[in-house]
Amino acid sequence: MQLNGKLQRPDRQLYDIDLYDTSAQTIGDLKAVGRIVICYFSAGSWEDWRPDAASYPSAALGAPLADWPGERWLDIRRADVRALLAKRMDLAVSKGCHGVDPDNVDGYSNPNGLQLTAADQLDFNRWLAREAHARDLAVGLKNTVDLLPQLVDDFDFAVNESCYAYQECDGYRLFRQQGKPVLIAEYRAYNSKMCAKAAAEGYRLQFFKRSLKGVGRPCS
Question: Residue limits of the Glycoside-hydrolase family GH114 TIM-barrel domain (predicted)?
């Protein structure tokens, strides 16, 4: 998983890389050597640096995301917002991505400024999964720990950030019971005891710097 900086190409089976910043040529090259390519984009937030940023109506923008300058929560209930996000999935298809990693799909549990509810989030996340599957894309559920029981059937894999740090990893057993991959990123130094726990639970764990600029260290 690398979302910033010049793309490194370590010996990994799966790459989770930025949809916009990665060319179709690079994705094709990775696929040609047998890599699985998952393309990251933010589904629940507006980012002022993206090429489609001006297309989002100002009325659809909520509160800023803490610690992420230039990013604001999106009103995921709006049809015009969903139409723009659907174009992002079309872009993933055109670039040849095997699947997508839509981020920030837990706005309801954050101070979003839009009065989003858990019901709104469930409706939107299921919509994302349907749209991805309609394009023959695999789709991952990012974080959103509280809604795992309701969403496990809709998603093909799970991506979590820091669930061991927050003691929230147990819920992902639901994904493993269905044979679905669980990919965990911890933003800390390598921890062999944590690796042993992840292995016992059937999870794939790697340790990263929070910037996600370089190569992470997987459990050995």
Answer: 2-212
